[in-house]
Amino acid sequence: MPSDSIWTYAPDSGHAEGQDLTGCTVVAADGTVGHVDRQADHFGMRHLVVDSGAWVFGRSVLVPVGIVTGIDPQDRRVTVSCTKAQIKAAPRFRTDSETMDREYLTAVGDYYDRLPPAGGSAP
């Protein structure tokens, strides 16, 4: 079972309650992932749906907010603690209904919760 912290913003992430991250660029440790298409909170499992554009063959990816390490509201940039390959290897996001599927969200949370800590600070 994933820890609750995978579904909550870290206190030092720069997140402000009510902040709209839609349209922000999402940056992993090794490059740009895409942009925030929408944010959701179902079953207390807060997450971002990220449009990855052509990088993952036009797919969107779902990331728990617990991997967000920094938010720069001026640059409209969200930094996450993992690599693009780790995001690409996460359980595949297919339909919007999965953002309300507790089993799918649990599988995503389990995956990200098991990732090793980032080796260094994100750019």
What does this structure look like?
The protein has 123 residues and is an alpha+beta fold. The protein has one domain: PRC-barrel domain (SH3 type barrels, Roll), CATH 2.30.30. It is 15% helix and 30% strand. It is built from 2 helices and 6 strands. It has a 6-stranded mixed beta sheet. β3 (45-51) and β4 form a beta hairpin. It is globular. The protein starts with 24 loop residues before the first strand and ends in a 9-residue tail after the last helix. Residues 119-123 have low confidence and may be disordered.
The level 1 CATH classification is Mainly Beta
Number of domains: 1
Helix content: 10-25%
pLDDT < 50 stretches: 119-123
How is the largest sheet built, in terms of strand order? 4-3-2-1-6-5
Kindly report the average pLDDT value. Answer: 87
Number of strands: 6
* CATH T-level fold name: SH3 type barrels
What is the radius of gyration computed over CA atoms, rounded to a whole number of angstroms? 13 Å
The CATH superfamily appears as PRC-barrel domain
Shape: globular
| Ends apart, CA distance between termini | 30 Å
| Total of helices | 2
CATH-level-2 architecture: Roll
Strand content: 25-35%
Main sheet makeup: 6 strands, mixed
Structural class: alpha+beta
Which H/E pattern describes the elements? EEEEEEHH
